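task queued by scheduler; priority normal; single chain, no ligands, no partner chains; default sampling; output format set to structure tokens
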Amino acid sequence: MILIIGDSHCQYPSINDQIDHAEQQTGSKITSVIQLGDFGIYQKELQKYFNGTKEQCFKRPLYFIDGNHEDFWHFDTLIKKYTKYFTHLPRASVNKIDGYRFLCLGGSAYMDPINTPPGAVITGENIEKCLYHNSQDIDIIISHDCPEGIGVPGTIGFEYCGEPGFPRSREVLDKIKPKLWIFAHHHKWYVAKEQNTQFFGLDVAYNGCAVLDDNFNVTILKHSVNENLGLTQRFHGKEDHLWPVSRRNKWKIKILKLLIKIKLLLKKS
């Protein structure tokens, strides 16, 4: 049984907490964990957790796709440095995990300079590589962002980003026609179905997870665990994204918040 978990934003201990909870609730052993982006690839947080006085590790093999909140300037270096703890699933790659063939697509649609820094945005090249695959070789799509047009509600405070979903996602859906498409990014639980594809959106890692059995059945397990606010800080509001805030980024965040407020005021006027 595979445990699938949403945005962890450097809350690494929550993953083991959810493994324990899933095994208790299902009575089955979790064999692998797939994390759907915003894992928390940041040097300071990785070093603090994995290179502390007591070595930390995950209870099961962990695979992850990149989100929009990672250190993309040092991403390749960091995933190589910590490769014994987790495995990155590159964009547009197909990976076989516990018998399932997953098409993986990290990143997200463009939001703004802070939430989607260089390297975070899904590119046309990423889409073309996804479309290159034979649909017969893919069982499930996992992505950080959701596909367009499936009804995922927008997040309060991010109305300026437009409707949820990344461009050209419908092309991928129409070509691959997966049985399941599972995503995170929006910090909310969501379930929908379109033709033969079932969609599942996951909340943040410290609010629960999903488990995937051997027959394409997905079960949502809502279970809140304590988040370690010492590792991350909230941007603004309870529904917003989390990421480590360095001193050099604080002024950028203040400016961005001001620009967002001005943009919303202009829309209302």
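post-processing summary
- Residues 247-268 form the longest helix (22 residues).
- The two ends are 52 Å apart (CA to CA).
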